[in-house]
Structures are given as structure tokens and as C-alpha cells.
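User: Predict the complex with nicotinamide-adenine-dinucleotide.
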Amino acid sequence: MKVNIVGMGYIGLPTALSMAAGGINITGTDKNKALLDTLRAGRLTFKEKGMPELFKSAQDSGNLSLSDCCVEADIYIVAVPTPYHKISKKIDASYVAGAVNDIVKVAPKGAIIAVESTIPPGTMERDVLPIIKEKGLVRGVDIHLAHVPERIIPGNMVYELQHNARTIGVDDEAVGEKLISVYRSFNKGTMTITDIKTAEMTKVVENTYRDVNIAFANELARICARDGMDVREVIKIANMHPRVNILSPGPGVGGHCISVDPWFLIGEYPEMTPLISSARKVNDAMPSFVLERVSALMKENGITDLSQVGFYGLTYKENVDDTRESPTLQLIEHLENNLVFNIRSYDPMVTHKVTDGQVMDFDEFLSSSRLVVIMVAHDHIKENEKRLEDKLVYDTRSCLKNIKTYQL
Ligand SMILES: NC(=O)c1ccc[n+]([C@@H]2O[C@H](COP(=O)([O-])OP(=O)(O)OC[C@H]3O[C@@H](n4cnc5c(N)ncnc54)[C@H](O)[C@@H]3O)[C@@H](O)[C@H]2O)c1
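Assistant: Here is the predicted structure with nicotinamide-adenine-dinucleotide placed in the model:
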């Protein structure tokens, strides 16, 4: 069995390494030659717990090769980006279509194309099937289609790859069983075979569920802040009700999944998604809410210059180096749109410059910040809590326990 994984990013790479380590013959394909060079030189392209060990197992197995083009294989796994159009909110399926276009040029008769990228219901039918047909190939005979969405969380990817339940969307059971045999090389979770459209829907539903529930917590945070209540205390007590489970509020929702996937449903079903749409607006407004609080805290403490405020954390969640759509970058963008530049920020996980005003050294960051705004609960800041004792601290994540802080 030969598998070609197309897209060696946050999803494709750990999947390729896991399969190779699990005994499957893998070619990892990516258009980004610099990324392939880095991997060939034995260096990983992002930081993630357990990845160095997994990389070593994959290398030792001799099952992994890398290529900048697609190769002949029995199964193709597509793990390329799926952004959305900012105006229509519909999915931009051009990367998926591009990858499938490349695959059909080399795929042998009977090959399976399994898309792992997140796509809304109907995408395989609307954006992938025509490419197969255009080539004169018959679905279910020359090429089998499948959608196998991924649900791993950065920060715990390797564990979740091995243990999460998987959804296998296929046209026919036999194709599903073949895919299960491949995913079983590294995954111990429950595997559910369903049809493709249901698989597409479940993935976007899962992330939309999270977004809507986070929005509820964020809305409560705003109400509590207005009227002097401690939202965390309110949620803690409310969650003692046996059927209530409110999530944690925060400074916004980022990343490439939860803040993006609800738009796919809104884009496809605009008139049927008022709740999802409102939730997106609530979460997108959180960075501005944080800024309003920062401004009030500056006034309260006689700080007149934003250069004395430092934003800690540039990633969208703790202990990862992924900054995509992060609340801090949203906040900085908001300020820049209002012609406020050079916002001081620092992130121990981000070792390259992602924004002007980013300080690369923690000591330097601390020495010039009178007010520190904690945007991300990295372990690093918890370990350095004592060093913030003489600072004003606005802890939007409520992650510091032993010093006095302002809360969301
Ligand atoms: N990152 C996550 O935590 C996560 C979790 C679940 C699902 N997903 C979904 O998985 C998909 C991939 O996300 P990601 O975070 O891995 O993206 P990524 O940007 O990290 O990686 C995508 C890779 O695909 C490559 N690529 C693009 N077009 C190509 C082509 N035609 N041929 C070969 N390579 C190509 C890019 O160069 C890039 O390296 C998205 O649909 C995303 O929504 C991501």
C-alpha cells in the first residue's frame, strides 16, 4: 500500500510521520520547496510536543520520502489550506482543487482521494467531482472520493492523532474499510463510516459548536465586566448545575479552525445561520473589548502612553507557535487600522518577527512595560509569574494565581 499525502503543514506532516512510523509507505508532497528542504535537513517546521520523537521514528522506519509533486499511489490524502472569501464568507476551495488537479494527472485506476482539509457540505460534489469528470474519469471506478476530516488540537497533536475518533466519509463501504486499515496504522480511536456530505457537515458543526459556546462565555464576560461581577466565579458556580457546562471566556478566538469554520456554514446557508453569525461577531469583537479595558486601566493608573503597555502572547493558544488569526494579531490590526503603530508585544514561542513592535527578549519586554496584558496562557508566563509582581497585570486568561491582577 502506497500513500501520497499532499500538503505537509500542521496536519499533513504529523499524519505522514505517524503513518510512516506505523509501517505505511508514504510520500509527503508540498509545493513549498523551502519547507521540504528544512524537513530533508532533519529539522521540523513547527514546534509541537512529541513531534521530534515522531519525526525520528518516521526517519528510522525508512518509509518516508518527500517530493514537490504528486506521485503514483493507492491512496491520496489532501491536507491543504481551506481559507474563506472575506466578503462572501464562502470557502475558497482553490487549494483543494489545485491539489486534486495534480493528483489526477498521476493517480492509477482505482485510487482513493481522501480530503482531510476542512470543507463545508457539498464541497466534494461541487469543487472536486468536476475535476475528475473533466479528466474523463468515472467516480467509484477510476477514482474513489472520500472525506476524512481531522480534529486534532495543536499542543496535543501527536496524542490526539493516535486517540481521537475519526469520521470516514465515503461512497462505498469497501473504500471506507480500506481507509480504516491505513488510519489504523497509528490511530486507536473509533472510526465511523458515513457518507461524504455527512462527514463534511460534522466537521464544521464540531468547530461551530465550540465557537458558539465560547461566544456565550464571552458575552457573559462583557455583562459581568459592565456590572462589576467576576465572570469566572459566575461560570464556576453555574457549572455546578448538573446540566450546565459553560466554557471559559477569553480575549478572542483565533487559529485556523474555530474562527474560520463557522464562516463556511454562514457562507453556504446565510439566511439560516443568525445564531452562528452572531456568535462570530461576539468573538471577533473581543480584541476590541480588551482594548477598551486596557484604555480604562491606563487612565485609572495614570499611564498616558501605549508604549508602556506590553501584550504578552502572539499565538492563538497556549504553548504552540501558531499565530494564525490570533486575538493579539487581531487587536494589533485593529489599532493599526486606527493608525496606532508599533504595539509592543512578546511571545516566547514565536522566534521570528510577525509584527512591528514585537520584542524578542523577555527581560527587555518586562523592563519597558508598566502594564502587561496577558493574551495567551503559555506555561512560560506561569513559570515567570513572580517577575510580574511589580507590574500592573491584566490577565485576560486568568492564568496567574499568586499575584494581584485585573481580570477580563
Ligand atoms: N491546523 C489545525 O490545527 C487543523 C486542525 C484540523 C483541521 N485542519 C484543516 O486541515 C487543513 C490543512 O491545515 P494546515 O493547518 O495543515 O495548513 P498549513 O497551511 O499548515 O499546510 C498546508 C500545506 O499545504 C501546502 N500546499 C498548498 N497547496 C498545495 C498543493 N497544491 N500541492 C502541495 N502542497 C500544497 C502548503 O504549502 C502548506 O505547506 C485545513 O483545511 C485546515 O482547516 C487544521
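Residues 6-12, 29-32, 35, 79-82, 95, 98-99, 102, 117-118, 150-152, 154, 256-257 surround nicotinamide-adenine-dinucleotide (CB under 6 Å).
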